[in-house]
Design brief:
Layout (H helix, E strand, L loop, with lengths): L10 H24 L7 H14 L28 H15 L1 H5 L6 H9 L2 H6 L5 E4 L15 E5 L2 E12 L6 E7 L9 E7 L5 E6 L10 E12 L3 E2 L11 H35 L15 H28 L5 H26 L1 H4 L5 H8 L9 H13 L8
Parallel strand pairs: 1-4
Antiparallel strand pairs: 2-3, 3-7, 4-5, 5-8, 6-7
Length: about 400
């Protein structure tokens, strides 16, 4: 069964990640928030260090935010395993305590890397190793409903020809590869959805714009058009056959791994807000007394304690979802629960801290106003709050997408 404390073997990793967040990310956080679309060059050396740490790790744990591979061995021996999923989530929590946009800007630590790690075969893992991959799912007419993807992939000889448009691609401009979701046959619905690794210099794959955003401004968000873009057959991730029985389980497995990671981002940012708020409360001479009933304490303390409770719930849900993946247990429900709880908590806590801090929270005196802007994306990407609640309801009620919309 899951243990709720940080595993002993991961404590050095957590300390290292926190040191990186404190010494590298926090000091340049405001700089790149103000200089939107300017690449944080300070991260290049840091990414190289993380690559080295990951290479030297023999138990599957990682130091970065890259995707992690679910153990295919279906470990049913009753042994509790804390592996790469949990270690990655723990390191993400620390790094996002530093800055969420910086984490998303870290070379070779993108969500596309998570897609490759989730479903690529051994040859693809070796071929794409060490390369930065973004992930392109969202389209102008298709947001939360991934099954409604309109980008097409048509097989011609040894290549698939892709046509369509992708928007809101995190790190799309800076990454070397983009994992593009496309359908082999629109008439077959979700069962025909596949993911393809597209090289950035591929003819017909055009970057059309970079978005100006509310938050995570250190990270670039791109839009692409694919016009007769020819991708080698070998770049299709997972099983190329269309199986109505399995749906698009192969590509959706990516979400089972990446949603706990996004939840971990929200947990890290929530903790940053709470620690800053705690410092402000203390500076005002107000004591947080956990032994006194909330109605007998100042209202700001009551609000703070309630926010801490929500933070702990989000953190434990996130660790549970990651631990289940490490132990080869189906975690789609838990991944959505963690993402929903952590995303909502992060937004609510960040905005409440801005409110409680008054002028200090609303201006650039502290990072609270920036964190409030950064928080919103964590409740949106990798599946919105509403979609997560819908997935949870379907799982709990035993209904499919046609029965519960």
């Amino acid at each position: 069964m899951i243990h709720l404390e940080i595993p002993r073997k991961f404590k050095p990793l957590v300390r290292q990640a926190h040191a990186v967040a404190l010494e590298v990310l926090r000091p340049i956080s405001r700089k790149y928030d103000l200089a939107e679309h300017e690449r944080p060059v300070e991260l290049d050396m840091l990414a190289a260090v993380i690559d080295g740490m990951n290479e030297g790790n023999t138990d599957g744990g990682g130091a970065g935010a890259a995707g992690v591979r679910r153990d295919a061995g279906a470990r049913q021996d009753g042994i509790n395993r804390n592996g790469a999923n949990l270690s990655t989530c723990l390191s993400i929590m620390e790094l996002c305590w530093g800055d969420v946009g910086m984490l998303l800007s870290m070379p070779r630590q993108g969500l596309g890397n998570a897609a490759i790690a989730s479903v690529a075969n051994d040859e693809q893992l070796a071929r794409f190793k060490g390369r930065w991959a973004a992930m392109a799912i969202t389209e102008p007419g298709c947001g939360s409903d991934s099954a409604a993807i309109r980008t097409t992939a048509r097989l011609e000889g040894d290549h698939y020809v892709l046509n369509g448009e992708k928007i809101f691609v995190t790190a799309g401009d800076r990454a070397e590869l983009v994992v593009v979701w496309a359908t082999l046959d629109r008439q077959l619905g979700r069962s025909a959805i596949k993911s393809f690794v597209v090289e950035k210099n591929t003819p017909g794959f055009e970057l059309v714009r970079l978005e100006h955003k509310l938050g995570i401004r250190a990270s670039d968000t791109a839009a692409f058009v694919l016009r007769d873009c020819r991708v080698p057959k070998a770049n299709l991730l997972g099983d190329p056959t269309v199986s109505p029985e399995r749906g698009f389980a192969g590509v959706m497995q990516t979400f089972d791994n990446t949603r706990p990671m996004v939840a971990a981002m929200a947990v890290g940012l929530t903790r940053a807000c709470l620690e800053e708020m705690r410092a402000i409360i203390t500076a005002c001479g107000i004591e947080v007394d956990y032994n006194r009933p909330l109605p007998r304490q100042p209202s700001v303390v009551a609000d703070f304690v309630r926010m801490q409770a929500d933070y702990e719930a989000a953190r434990l849900l996130t660790m549970q979802a990651a631990w289940m993946a490490d132990n080869a247990r189906p975690n789609s429900l838990q991944a959505s629960m963690a993402k929903a709880k952590a995303g909502r908590t992060c937004v609510e806590v960040a905005l409440k801290c801005v409110e409680l801090a008054g002028g200090m929270g609303y201006t650039e005196t502290t990072l609270l106003e920036k964190w409030a802007r950064d928080a919103k994306i964590l409740d949106i990407f990798e599946g919105t709050q509403q979609i997560q609640l819908l997935i949870i309801a379907r799982r709990l009620l035993g209904k499919n997408s046609a029965e519960l919309k």
